[in-house]
Write a structure and sequence with these properties.
Blueprint: E1 20-22, E2 33-38, H1 48-62, E3 70-74, H2 78-90, E4 93-99, H3 104-112, E5 116-120, H4 129-142, E6 148-150, H5 157-161, H6 164-173, E7 180-184, H7 189-201, E8 206-212, E9 247-251, H8 253-267, H9 273-289, E10 294-299
Parallel strand pairs: 2-10, 3-4, 3-6, 4-5, 7-8, 7-10, 8-9
Antiparallel strand pairs: 1-2
Helix pairs in contact: 1-2, 2-3, 6-7, 8-9
Length: 316
């Protein structure tokens, strides 16, 4: 949104208004234009700041979240970090349930923002349906205590509402020329919120979902282990609406990681693995649609969240 000289704002005002950048070097020749919304410019380095602010403020305004309450959530890390940010800004305490399957940076970031963090041990640091369901069960147990508010990101409609401004921003920044929107699916809240908002602006826009090839349940495959943090829970998310999407593209962990590294080296965009998956899928759509079309996808979060992982940890 930008801040002029001698103007100060609340930290919450830093959420949103992220840049839309055109990819120049990884795109195929003769394909559609591919634009990426750089969500790593949000305060915690993630698109999840948008949903966290929506979840906290809507719960508070409706009376579901009261002064002195503790927010409880299960999370792969970015949602928990964003909720911890929103809670710190709004004056609430928060307890998050996560796992060692997710990066150390995310867990450290949540703690730095004041969250109490409960870690569930994973099997070989793989993201599986069983792990996510165990985390959800533990969070539900914790939220049974008095004076708690269970954010429950898979089921909370306030999360999808937080992404409507993202769609409106991208539409305006692109000059109203979006032909397709591509997004990886975790809770399905982002793709749902963006799809509804974009369709209000352009009824014919294509919505393309992305999921891990190793756990392609939205494509009718079986659940499996993968290492693309933030997406592919191993089950169909409760708020997934297949009628919103025209296509589901499975992308492997190795493809996603390779593209994330290419984005850093060739586009100077430092991003996580789900962003790599988004771009791989967007390039496939770009080849299919061809020139005179515009595709938008997301840089979901910053590569700073993954420095300790095998995505970017380079041996000397």
């Amino acid at each position: 949104m930008g801040v002029t000289a001698n103007q100060t704002v609340d930290v919450i005002a830093a959420v949103g208004g992220t840049p839309l950048v055109e990819l120049r070097n990884v795109v195929p020749k003769g394909g559609a234009r591919v634009l990426v919304k750089v969500e790593s410019h949000n305060p915690t380095g993630s698109m999840k700041d948008r949903m966290a602010l929506s979840v906290i403020d809507r719960a508070a305004s409706s009376g579901r979240l009261k002064p002195g309450d503790t927010v409880v959530e299960y999370t792969g890390g970015s949602t928990g970090t964003s909720l911890a940010f929103a809670c710190a800004a709004r004056g609430y305490s928060i307890t998050v349930v996560t796992s060692d399957a997710f990066s150390q940076e995310k867990r450290d970031h949540m703690r730095a923002l004041g969250a109490q963090v409960i870690e569930i041990e994973s099997r070989d640091r793989q993201i599986t349906r069983e792990l996510i369901q165990t985390m959800m069960a533990k969070a539900a147990e914790v939220s049974a205590a008095p004076q708690t508010y269970y954010a429950d990101q898979f089921n909370n409609p306030d999360a999808a509402a937080g992404y409507a401004p993202l769609a409106e921003e991208a539409w305006n920044q692109s000059g109203g020329t979006i032909d397709a929107f591509v997004q990886a699916v975790g809770t399905a809240q982002c793709i749902t919120g963006v799809a509804h908002a974009l369709r209000n602006l352009h009824a014919e826009v294509e919505i393309v979902a992305v999921e891990p090839a190793e756990s392609a349940v939205l494509s009718g495959g079986v659940a499996g282990a993968h290492k693309i943090e933030g997406i592919g829970p191993g089950f169909v998310p409760p708020r997934w609406d297949p009628s919103l999407v025209s296509e589901v593209i499975p992308i492997s962990t190795s493809e996603a990681k390779e593209m994330a590294r290419r984005l850093a080296k060739e586009e100077a965009l430092f991003a996580g693995t789900s962003s790599g998956a988004n771009v791989v899928a967007a390039l496939q759509v770009a080849e299919r649609l061809g020139p005179d079309h515009t595709i938008v996808t997301l840089i979901c979060d910053s590569g700073m969240k993954y420095l300790s992982t095998d995505l970017y940890s380079v041996k000397p």
